Amino acid sequence: MKLKLIISSLLCLLWASSTIAQDSQFTQFYAAPTYLNPAFAGTSVQNRLAINGRNQWPSIAGGWQTYNFAFDHYAPSINSGFGILAMHEKAGSGALRSNTVALQYTYEVPIRRDVFFLPAIQFGYSNRNINFNDLVFSDQIIRDNAENSLETNGIQPHGFFDMGAGALLFSKKYWFGLAVHHLNEPNESLFPQTVSILARKYSAHGGYRMKMPGKFYNRSKNYIVAAFNYKQQGDFNQLDLGAYVETEPFTFGLWYRGLLAKSNGYGYLNQDAVALLVGINTNRYKIGYSYDLTISQLGSPNSGGAHEISIQYEWSNKRNARLAKRRIVPCAKF
Description:
Blueprint: H1 2-18, H2 33-36, E1 47-56, E2 64-75, E3 80-91, E4 96-107, E5 109-112, E6 115-130, H3 138-142, E7 158-170, E8 174-181, E9 201-211, E10 222-233, E11 236-247, E12 250-258, E13 271-281, E14 285-294, H4 300-303, E15 306-315, H5 318-326
């Protein structure tokens, strides 16, 4: 157990001080739409509250835990959407913690009937820190598992400003979005004498929604939704491909995450996980659960995969409620 703590602590310190960090991710990224792309702020037309929780690799000491809270609102009188999100992340046995708060603004531009374009911008502030007392060093083990280490604490909490932008194009049947986060590539190092650049993250995402054929095709409320999400940050990239079956009030989804055409440099297939998703959608609530089955060399029995839960709640005034019935955003619900 001590060995695991030491390894986790060292990895955590190395990651924090000298590498190019990567952002957290959600399997149910459409249940955290404004985290995926600030241009989604206000797209529900109603007031929307979203809460997301992810526990990644729970079988590994010091796994990654992510919590997201977001609220967005649409103001039809000025064709604008406003959003705010707050995120908390915890990783490693050294209790590496990150907190982020961001404000978002998007403007809706009608292209033609039922086709809209939304550019957006985001401004945020992040803070990172490691609880030095939770780290285990070699001198503590040598000195019969001493409670305190003789190591000098050179870690300091660090805060930085962050910027992002995005754009979204959608009709009743399809959507396509582009987003870039960390435009200013801030330094997030916890050591004053070092630099750890938070690389820009680029993402492209989209999909298509169609009714399931049936005897009463035009009245059907059952849909098939195909979607994708591609991300690149520094030297790392990832493609998510998936599909949903929506039959009110339930949604069932299957996703694959990986890039088989790209070598990972170690002679293995570059693949990460297969995700299973189930959700329920009522008039105001959307509740989803997903599980990531790890198919990389790490393996689910060793990692424990990833569990994720999402909760969305929507409400509106009478004016926005009437508008929500006319303007349909086809994006997946989870």
